[in-house]
Task: inverse folding
C-alpha cells in the first residue's frame, strides 16, 4: 500500500516538473517562436441585423445581455437573430491565416461568412440592405517575451474592438493604415474581441456577404516614429533640375513613448533644400497620438539633379533634455511641364493635401483664344478607394490631351475623399483649385491663365456622387456637369431598411441631418446647367437605376439633362471617362466657356438649401438662414422679360443675400413685400430678412441670427475648421477619449489635431474645438447663451416650444448619461462638446463624433446605455439649434424628460445612500412616491442587498428595467427571495407592463402584492393595448404576464393582495390570484369588484384563510357583500368605506354580520350617501349601534368610524359626545380613527390685523391658527373617550388618527403621552381651506430627507 502511494506521488511530482518546464518553454522565445503572435483560432457569434452606417449609434443586440465581452464560448448557447433560419444563431469557429513567425511583426487575416443563411431570399425582398450584418469574433494575442512589449496595432476593415476589455472605437474601417494604436502588452495571453460589421457601401453588394479583416502588429521602440512609410511631397516640374510643383510636404508621425513628444525642427540633408515647419512650434504629440507634420521644402539654387531627399525630424521627449532625430526619405517624381503632376497645398484643416494637375496643352485647339485668356477647370473626381496619384486616375483623361481647360484631379484628402466629397472632401477640392495660381507662379507658367470660378465637373462612382454635390451646392461656378456611374445619395445607395426600429420622430432627425447630401432634394439648383449622365447598364456596383432616377427627377424639376446608358458595360471599363459622348460634351462646353460672358438672361429659377451653410448662390441668390432648422428652404424667382419685374416667393427662409441683378429689375417683390426702392439702390449686395412675413434690408433690421455661416449644419459642421482641431480634455480620465477622437480624425480624414488641457488657449485659437469632459468638468459656454447645461449627475435643456410655455427638460444619470452637441465660438467657429456623466458614458458620446458619412448626427444628442443596443431609439433627446442657438421646435425629447430635475436628484441621492450601506443588511426597501428603480438601482440592490425581502416601487418602471432584468450580470435570485412587493401606477406602455410582468415572474415566493393604477392611467394603458376583447378587466392579467399577449402560467399563491383603482373582470382576476391562499384583501375603487363577490364567496365557502378585508367603493343593496363577508369566518379586521345612492343603509344587517364574526378585532365603517345640497356626506352611526358593537365585539382593539359632521367649534356637538361615550365599554381599544375630517369655521380662521396684500404671510397665520384648533380638538376627543373608561388610563389608547393630512409634525407635541398619527396625500378641510387662503397641506418634500436608521439597518424609508 505504501509503495503504491509513493509511486503515485512520484508520478504527480514528475508531471508537475514537466508541466513547469513546458510552461517555461512556452513563454521563452525561440527561433521558431516569436515574441508575439496571433492565434489562428477564432470564435464567432452572429450574424445579427444592422442597417447602413448604423453601428456608430450602437445598435448591438448583445449589449442587452451585457455585451459580447460578458459572454463566454458555449456550444449549446443560442441567440435570437432575424437573419438566421429559425431565428437562432450560435457560436461558430473560424481559422485565420496568420503570418509566418517573425521577430518584429505578426498578422492575422480572417474571413467570416455565413453560408447557412439564405441571403438570396433576403436580398430578393430587401435588396442590398439585407446583405449587411454584424457579429463578434474572439481570439487571442500571445506575448512570449520576457518583458512588456510596445506594439503598434493596425486593424483593417474594423470599426470597433476590445483588447483585454479595453474598448477601442474607430479602428480602420477603410484600411487606410494611417493611425495605428499603441499597445503595451505584458507577457501572457491577451483576449481580443472584434465587432464585425458588413457594409455594402464599403464592401460591395456582389458575391457572398463576407467580412474580411486584417490585424497587423509591429514592434515599436517607444519613441516618435513615422506612422507611414512615405513623405507627401509634390512632383518636380520639368526635368531633374526643375523645381517642386509646390513647396508643401508632410510626414505623419506617431508617439509610441510613455511621455509627450515635441517636434521642434525639420531639416533636409545634403544641402539641396531648405526645410521649415509650418505653423507654431514645437508640435506636441501625446503618447499614442498620430499627427501629420507639415513643412515647406525650398530649393537651393543652382538646382542639381535630385534623388531622394532625406528629411531629418528633430524632437525632444518630455522630461528629457536630449535632442532626438528621425530620418525618412522623400522621393518626388519628375514630370514634364504639361504632364499630370502632383501638386501639394494646405488644406483648410491645417495639414498638407495634394491633387494631380494637368495644365492646358500647348496644342489645345480653343476657339477664339486670346493670349490673356483664362481657361476653366475640368474637375475629375475619383471613385472610392482610389488615390488621385494612381495611374487609373492620373491618366484617365489622356485620350483628351487638347482640352481647353486645366484638368484637376483632387484627392479629397483620402482615397475615400474624406467624407465622400462633402464638407471635408469638398473643402479639399476648393483648396486645390485655389492652389493653381500658386503653381503658376511657382513654376513660371507662361500659358493661359485659370478661371477659378468656372468648373466643368466630372466624376466616376463616388466621384459621380461628388459631381451631384458640386452641381447642387456651387451652381454659380459649375458651367457643366458629367456624373458618371454615380449614386444619387447614400440613403438611396443602400436603403436604411434594416436600421433598428425607432420612433419616427427620432429617425426623421437623423435623416434630416443628411438633407444636404440628399441630392434628390436639391436638383432645382441645377437648372440651366448642361448635364450629361452616363452609366453602364451592367453596373453591379452602382446600378443604373440611380442615373435613371436622377434623370427623371431632373426633368420634373425643369432641369435639362442628357442621359447615355452604355449597353453591356459594367461599373468601370477602360475609357469610361472619355467615351465619345463625353468627349463631345467636354469640348462643346469648355470651348464655349472661352467666349465673353453674355449679359445675365434671367429666367425663372429656384434656389434650395438644406440650411447646413454649404450651398452657394444661384444666380446670386444665396439662402443664409432658415426659419425652421432640419427642413429645406426654397426661394422661387420669377422674372418677367416684358416688364422686368422680379418676384420672389420663399418657403422656410429667414434671410438671404440680395443678388446684383435686382438693380436690373423695374419691380421687386418678396412674398408680397415691395422692395423696388431697394432694387434701385445699386448692385451692392445686401442681406434681406423676414419678420412675420415682412421683408427688410439688413440696414433696416436687427442683426442677423447669431448662428451663421460655417456654424450652420448638423454635427459634421465641426469639420469646417480653419487649422488643426483643438481637442481639449478637462480631466485626466477624459484623456483617453481625446486620444481616440484624435486618432479617428487622423485615420478617416488625415486631419491634424492638437490635444491639450488648456481650454482657454484652445478656445481663443482660430480653429474648431472639441471638448472632452466628464461630469462637472465641462466649462460653461463663453460665447453667449446655450440651452444645454451640464452637471455632475444630470443634463438640463431649455425648451421654448413646450405647450404652456418654456420648460427645462431634465435627464438624470440612472442608466448612465451621455451628450454630444455643438456650441458657438467667436469668428463663426464651433465647439463640439463630448460629455459623459462618467467614463463609461463618455465612451458612448464619443461614438457620435463625426467619423464617416451617412450616420446622421444632428446638432445635439443625449443618450444613455440603452443606445448601445437600441441604437437611435435609445437616445433621450436629439435635434437642432435655431439661429439664436435655441432648441428648434423640430427637436425630439423622450418622455423621461417629464421627470422633474429634483426627482432625478432624489434618485441619485438614493443611489448614494445605498452605496454607503454595508452589504446584505437591507430587508425592506421603499422607493419615494412617483419613482421606481432603474437598471442601475436594480443592479445595486441585486448585488449588494441579497437579503432584501420587501420592495415598494413608488412609480412606473423605467424602460431600462427589462434590460436590467435580462442582463447576465443582474442575477434574478434576489427577486426570488422577495416576499412583499408594491407596484404603483402604470403610465401606459407595453414595455412597462412587460417589465412588471418579469418582476412578478421572478418573484416566486411572493407573499404580499399591492397594485395601484389610477382610473385615468388605466384607460390610457388599455387604449395603448389595442385589444379587441373590449374588456378593461384583462389589464391585471396582462400586467402579470399570465394571459395573452405575454403567455400563460399558474395563478399567484400570495397571502396579501391590495388593489387600488384597478379594473378587473372576474374571469381574468381568478386566473391570476389563488384566493384560497389569501389572508388579506384590500380593494380600493375597483369597478367591477362587486361582480366578483359571488365567485369569491363560493371559493371561501370551501375554506377561507382570509383574516383582513378592506373595501372602499360603491355598494349595491343586493346582499352580495353580506354573503361574501359571511363566507369569511376567520375574518379579524373588516373595513368598509362605501358609497350608496340609497337614502339609508339600515338594510345592511350589521347585527347579523357581527354575529358571524366572533373573532373580529378591528372594524372600520364609513357609509356615504348622496345629499342633494351637500354632495357625498357620511351617514351618522347611532349610539345604539356603537353599543351593539361593544356587546358583540368586546375584544375590539382598533376602531375607525365616520362621525356626524364636525366643526372645530368651542364646544363639541352633543351627539358627538354621546357617540364617543358609547365606546367606553371597549376596554381593549388601542387605536381610534375618525374617518371624516373636522372643518374650521370662518370666524376661527380670522387673523387680527390681516393685510390682504401680504397673502403668503396671511396664509401662514391662518394655517397656524388652524393647527392650534386642531391640536385642541384632538386633546378634547382623547379626554372624552378616556373619561368614560373604567380604568381612566390615558395611555390605554396609544394611537389617535384623524383623517388624512401631511402635518403630523405640527399636530404632535413633545410632551404628549400618546401618538397622534396623521396620514399624507389628502387635503385639509376640502374646498373650505382654499376659500380661506390656506395652502394645500399635501406636504410633498422636494428634496430627499435623511433616511431613517432602524434596528439592524433593516429598513430605509424615503419621502419627498
Result:
Amino acid at each position: 500500500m505504501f509503495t503504491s502511494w509513493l509511486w503515485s506521488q512520484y508520478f504527480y511530482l514528475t508531471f508537475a516538473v514537466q508541466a513547469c518546464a513546458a510552461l517555461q518553454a512556452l513563454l521563452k522565445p525561440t527561433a521558431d517562436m516569436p515574441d508575439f503572435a496571433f492565434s489562428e483560432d477564432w470564435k464567432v457569434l452572429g450574424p445579427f441585423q444592422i442597417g447602413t452606417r448604423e453601428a456608430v449609434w450602437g445598435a448591438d443586440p448583445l449589449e442587452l445581455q451585457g455585451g459580447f465581452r460578458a459572454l463566454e464560448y458555449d456550444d449549446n448557447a443560442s441567440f435570437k437573430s432575424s437573419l438566421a433560419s429559425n431565428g437562432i444563431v450560435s457560436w461558430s469557429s473560424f481559422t485565420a491565416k496568420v503570418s509566418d513567425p517573425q521577430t518584429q511583426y505578426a498578422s492575422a487575416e480572417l474571413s467570416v461568412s455565413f453560408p447557412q443563411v439564405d441571403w438570396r431570399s433576403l436580398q430578393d425582398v430587401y435588396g442590398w440592405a439585407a446583405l449587411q450584418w454584424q457579429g463578434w469574433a474572439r481570439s487571442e494575442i500571445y506575448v512570449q517575451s520576457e518583458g512588456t512589449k510596445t506594439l503598434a496595432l493596425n486593424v483593417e476593415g474594423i470599426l470597433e474592438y476590445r483588447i483585454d476589455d479595453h474598448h477601442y472605437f474607430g479602428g480602420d474601417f477603410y484600411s487606410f493604415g494611417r493611425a495605428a494604436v499603441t499597445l503595451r502588452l505584458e507577457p501572457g495571453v491577451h483576449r481580443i474581441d472584434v465587432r464585425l460589421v458588413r457594409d455594402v457601401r464599403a464592401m460591395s453588394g456582389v458575391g457572398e456577404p463576407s467580412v474580411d479583416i486584417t490585424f497587423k502588429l509591429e514592434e515599436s521602440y517607444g519613441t516618435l516614429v513615422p506612422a507611414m512609410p512615405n513623405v507627401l511631397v509634390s512632383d518636380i516640374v520639368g526635368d531633374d533640375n526643375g523645381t517642386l510643383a509646390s513647396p508643401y510636404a508632410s510626414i505623419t508621425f506617431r508617439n509610441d513613448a510613455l511621455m509627450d513628444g515635441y517636434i521642434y525642427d525639420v531639416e533636409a540633408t545634403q544641402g539641396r533644400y531648405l526645410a521649415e515647419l509650418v505653423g507654431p512650434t514645437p508640435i506636441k504629440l501625446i503618447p499614442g497620438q498620430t499627427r501629420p507634420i507639415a513643412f515647406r521644402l525650398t530649393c537651393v539654387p543652382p538646382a542639381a539633379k535630385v534623388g531622394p531627399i532625406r528629411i531629418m525630424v528633430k524632437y525632444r521627449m518630455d522630461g528629457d533634455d536630449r535632442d532626438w532625430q528621425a530620418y525618412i526619405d522623400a522621393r518626388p517624381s519628375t514630370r514634364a511641364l504639361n504632364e499630370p503632376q502632383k501638386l501639394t497645398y494646405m488644406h483648410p484643416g491645417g495639414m498638407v493635401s495634394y491633387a494631380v494637375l494637368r495644365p492646358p496643352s500647348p496644342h489645345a485647339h480653343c476657339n477664339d483664344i486670346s493670349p490673356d485668356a483664362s481657361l476653366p477647370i475640368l474637375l475629375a473626381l475619383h471613385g472610392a478607394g482610389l488615390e488621385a496619384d494612381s495611374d487609373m486616375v492620373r491618366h484617365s483623361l489622356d485620350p483628351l490631351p487638347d482640352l481647353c481647360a486645366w484638368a484637376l484631379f483632387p484627392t479629397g484628402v483620402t482615397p475615400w475623399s474624406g467624407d465622400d466629397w462633402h464638407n471635408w472632401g469638398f473643402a479639399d477640392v476648393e483648396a486645390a483649385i485655389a492652389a493653381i495660381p500658386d503653381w503658376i507662379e511657382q513654376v513660371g507658367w507662361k500659358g493661359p491663365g485659370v478661371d477659378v470660378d468656372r468648373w466643368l465637373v466630372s466624376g466616376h462612382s463616388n466621384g459621380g456622387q461628388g459631381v451631384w454635390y458640386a452641381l447642387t451646392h456651387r451652381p454659380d461656378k459649375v458651367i457643366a456637369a458629367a456624373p458618371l456611374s454615380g449614386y444619387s445619395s447614400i440613403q438611396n445607395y443602400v436603403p436604411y431598411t434594416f436600421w433598428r426600429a425607432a420612433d419616427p420622430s427620432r429617425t426623421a432627425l437623423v435623416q434630416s441631418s443628411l438633407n444636404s447630401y440628399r441630392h434628390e432634394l436639391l436638383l432645382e439648383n441645377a437648372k440651366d446647367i448642361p448635364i450629361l449622365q452616363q452609366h453602364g447598364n451592367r453596373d453591379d456596383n452602382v446600378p443604373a437605376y440611380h442615373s435613371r432616377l436622377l434623370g427623371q427627377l431632373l426633368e420634373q424639376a425643369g432641369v435639362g439633362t442628357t442621359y447615355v446608358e452604355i449597353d453591356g458595360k459594367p461599373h468601370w471599363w477602360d475609357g469610361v471617362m472619355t467615351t465619345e459622348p463625353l468627349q463631345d460634351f467636354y469640348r462643346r462646353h469648355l470651348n464655349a466657356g472661352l467666349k465673353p460672358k453674355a449679359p445675365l438672361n434671367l429666367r425663372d429659377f429656384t434656389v434650395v438649401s438644406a440650411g447646413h451653410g454649404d450651398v452657394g448662390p444661384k444666380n446670386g441668390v444665396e439662402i443664409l438662414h432658415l426659419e425652421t432648422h432640419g427642413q429645406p428652404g426654397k426661394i422661387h424667382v420669377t422674372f418677367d422679360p416684358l416688364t422686368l419685374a422680379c418676384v420672389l416667393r420663399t418657403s422656410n427662409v429667414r434671410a438671404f443675400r440680395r443678388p446684383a441683378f435686382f438693380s436690373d429689375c423695374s419691380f421687386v417683390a418678396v412674398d408680397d413685400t415691395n422692395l423696388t426702392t431697394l432694387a434701385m439702390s445699386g448692385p451692392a449686395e445686401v442681406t434681406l430678412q423676414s419678420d412675420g412675413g415682412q421683408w427688410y434690408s439688413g440696414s433696416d433690421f436687427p442683426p442677423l441670427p447669431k448662428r451663421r455661416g460655417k456654424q450652420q449644419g448638423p454635427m459634421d459642421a465641426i469639420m469646417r475648421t480653419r487649422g488643426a482641431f483643438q481637442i481639449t480634455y478637462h480631466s485626466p480620465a477624459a484623456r483617453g477619449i481625446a486620444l481616440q477622437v484624435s486618432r479617428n480624425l487622423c485615420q478617416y480624414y488625415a486631419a491634424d489635431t492638437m490635444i491639450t488641457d488648456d481650454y482657454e488657449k484652445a478656445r481663443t485659437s482660430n480653429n474648431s474645438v472639441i471638448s472632452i469632459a466628464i461630469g462637472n468638468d465641462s466649462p460653461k459656454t463663453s460665447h453667449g447663451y446655450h440651452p444645454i447645461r451640464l452637471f455632475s449627475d444630470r443634463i438640463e435643456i431649455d425648451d421654448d416650444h413646450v405647450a404652456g410655455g418654456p420648460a427645462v427638460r431634465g435627464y438624470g444619470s440612472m442608466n448612465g448619461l451621455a451628450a454630444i452637441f455643438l456650441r458657438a465660438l467667436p469668428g463663426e467657429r464651433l465647439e463640439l462638446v463630448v460629455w459623459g456623466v462618467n467614463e463609461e458614458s463618455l465612451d458612448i458620446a464619443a461614438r457620435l463624433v463625426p467619423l464617416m458619412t451617412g450616420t446622421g448626427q444632428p446638432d445635439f444628442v443625449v443618450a444613455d446605455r440603452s443606445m448601445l443596443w437600441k441604437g437611435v431609439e435609445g437616445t433621450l433627446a436629439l435635434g437642432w439649434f435655431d439661429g439664436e442657438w435655441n432648441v428648434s421646435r423640430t427637436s425630439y425629447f423622450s418622455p423621461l424628460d417629464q421627470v422633474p430635475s429634483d426627482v432625478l436628484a432624489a434618485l441619485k441621492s438614493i443611489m448614494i445612500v445605498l452605496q454607503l450601506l454595508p452589504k446584505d443588511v437591507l430587508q425592506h426597501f421603499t422607493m419615494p412616491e412617483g419613482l421606481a428603480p432603474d437598471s442601475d438601482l436594480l443592479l445595486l440592490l441585486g448585488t449588494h442587498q441579497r437579503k432584501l425581502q420587501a420592495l415598494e416601487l413608488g412609480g412606473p418602471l423605467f424602460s431600462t428595467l427589462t434590460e436590467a432584468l435580462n442582463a447576465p450580470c443582474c442575477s434574478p435570485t434576489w427577486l426570488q427571495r422577495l416576499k412583499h412587493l408594491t407596484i404603483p401606477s402604470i403610465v401606459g406602455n407595453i414595455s412597462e407592463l412587460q417589465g412588471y410582468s418579469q418582476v412578478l415572474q421572478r418573484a416566486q415566493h411572493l407573499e404580499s402584492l399591492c397594485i395601484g393604477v389610477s382610473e385615468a392611467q388605466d384607460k390610457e394603458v388599455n387604449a395603448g393595448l389595442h385589444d379587441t376583447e373590449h374588456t378593461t378587466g384583462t389589464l391585471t392579467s396582462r400586467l402579470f404576464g399570465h394571459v395573452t399577449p405575454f403567455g400563460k402560467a399558474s395563478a399567484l399563491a400570495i397571502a396579501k393582495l391590495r388593489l387600488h383603482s384597478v379594473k378587473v373582470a372576474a374571469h381574468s382576476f381568478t386566473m391570476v390570484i389563488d384566493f384560497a391562499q389569501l389572508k388579506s384583501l384590500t380593494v380600493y375603487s375597483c369597478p367591477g369588484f362587486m361582480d366578483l363577490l359571488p365567485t369569491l364567496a363560493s371559493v371561501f365557502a370551501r375554506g377561507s384563510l382570509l383574516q383582513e378585508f378592506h373595501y372602499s367603493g360603491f355598494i349595491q343593496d343586493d346582499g352580495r357583500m353580506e354573503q361574501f363577508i359571511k363566507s369569511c369566518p376567520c375574518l379579524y379586521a373588516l373595513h368598509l368605506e362605501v358609497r350608496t345612492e340609497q337614502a339609508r343603509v339600515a338594510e345592511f344587517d350589521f347585527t347579523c354580520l357581527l354575529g358571524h364574526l366572533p373573532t373580529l378585532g378591528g372594524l372600520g365603517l364609513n357609509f356615504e350617501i348622496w345629499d342633494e345640497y351637500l354632495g357625498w356626506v357620511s351617514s351618522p352611526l347611532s349610539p345604539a349601534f356603537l353599543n351593539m358593537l361593544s356587546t358583540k365585539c368586546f375584544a375590539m382593539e382598533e376602531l375607525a368610524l365616520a362621525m356626524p359632521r364636525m366643526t372645530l367649534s368651542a364646544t363639541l356637538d352633543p351627539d358627538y359626545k354621546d357617540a364617543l361615550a358609547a365606546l367606553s365599554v371597549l376596554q381593549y381599544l388601542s387605536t381610534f380613527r375618525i374617518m371624516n375630517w373636522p372643518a374650521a369655521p370662518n370666524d376661527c380662521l380670522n387673523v387680527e390685523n390681516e393685510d390682504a396684500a401680504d397673502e403668503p404671510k396671511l396664509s401662514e397665520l391662518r394655517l397656524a391658527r388652524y393647527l392650534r384648533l386642531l391640536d385642541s380638538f384632538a386633546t378634547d376627543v382623547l379626554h372624552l373617550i378616556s373619561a368614560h373608561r373604567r380604568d381612566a388610563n390615558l395611555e390605554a389608547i396609544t394611537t389617535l388618527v384623524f383623517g388624512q393630512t401631511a402635518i403630523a409634525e405640527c399636530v404632535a407635541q413633545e410632551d404628549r403621552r400618546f401618538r397622534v398619527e396623521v396620514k399624507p396625500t389628502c387635503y385639509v378641510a376640502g374646498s373650505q381651506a382654499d376659500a380661506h387662503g390656506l395652502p394645500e397641506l399635501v406636504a410633498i418634500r422636494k428634496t430627499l430627507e435623511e433616511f431613517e436608521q432602524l434596528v439592524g439597518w433593516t429598513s430605509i424609508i424615503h419621502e419627498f
Summary: Residues 160 and 386 are 24 Å apart (CA to CA). The longest strand covers residues 449-460. The two ends are 75 Å apart (CA to CA). Residues 1255-1283 form the longest helix (29 residues).
